[in-house]
Amino acid sequence: HGKENVDSRHNRGRGGDTTRFHTVNVAQPVRFSRKCPTGWHHYEGTASCYRVYLNGENYWDAVQTCQRVNGSLATFTADQELRFILAQEWDLEEKAFVRKDQRRFWVGYQYVITNRNHSLEGHWEVAYKGSSEVFLPPDPIFGTAMSEKENVLCAQLQCFHFPTLRHHGLHSWYAENCYEKSSFLCKRSQTCVDIKDNIVDEGYYFTPKGNDPCLSCTCHNGEPEMCVAALCERPQGCQQYRKDPKECCKFTCLDP
């Protein structure tokens, strides 16, 4: 993977003869910055992808939506991961359930109420077992739409729109009625994404998302490995040309 040099150069040898050579390609280290499908944000620390869905859904419907894209409602393994989430600009549109200055998302925790005396007592749990070790939120703010019969409330993470508040990590945790409608945050493992933004399964060959359509790699643990590059001849009879960014060895001649 490198830069094609289309100039023919001349070098005069010791005996006075002219040696003509043509540099076709120079090997370069291959770097890929795209490990998530379009619309998802990648975090290197957990090798995961994150996406906020704006269609207001109750908690249970949000769970199913995340599962359909091979993910789950987000839980967090460390403060650094949470800070990454809070710092993102999620490009939210104004909706009836989204205040202009703050945003609340369903995430993958539930608050189990154990005592309903003068104050609600309980504890946080991860909603779905099997996820890696996670930290649990602090005591929540209780939502307004609570029923006395509810023993389980669902977690909403509130973050703020204004950049100064966002970058300082200001946020709150809410324990809310699970049937309220809200935006929600899905999390999934990083994956192989090909040049046409298709997700590639483990072990398959693909051309990674990037600027070289002539690469063929194997997908391994969400990373492109064992990449092989095809080398293209320059188009004959054309001095100025442009490579097609999506198809290997396809050119557009720019000569008058």
Give an overview in words.
The chain is mostly beta strands. 9% of the residues lie in helices and 37% in strands. The protein folds into 2 domains: 41-92 and 99-189, Roll (Mannose-Binding Protein A, Chain A); 192-253, no CATH class. It is built from 3 helices and 18 strands. The strands form 5 sheets. Strands 3, 4, 5, 6, 7, 8, 9, 10 and 11 form a 9-stranded mixed sheet that branches. Strand 14 and strand 15 form a beta hairpin. The longest helix has 10 residues, at 59-68. The model is unreliable at 1-29 and 93-98 (pLDDT under 50).
Task: Give a brief description.
The protein is mainly β. It has 2 domains: 143 residues, Roll (Mannose-Binding Protein A, Chain A), CATH 3.10.100; 62 residues, no CATH class.
Shape: elongated
Got a strand count?
18
Number of helices: 3
CATH architecture of the largest domain: Roll
Give the full name of the CATH homologous superfamily of the largest domain.
Mannose-Binding Protein A, subunit A
Mean pLDDT: 75
> Helix fraction?
under 10%
How many individual domains?
Answer: 2
Domain C-type lectin: 45-187
Pfam families: Lectin_C
InterPro entries: C-type_lectin-like (IPR001304), C-type_lectin-like/link_sf (IPR016186), CTDL_fold (IPR016187), DGCR2-like_CTLD (IPR034010), IDD (IPR042378), VWF_dom (IPR001007)
Region (Disordered): 1-20
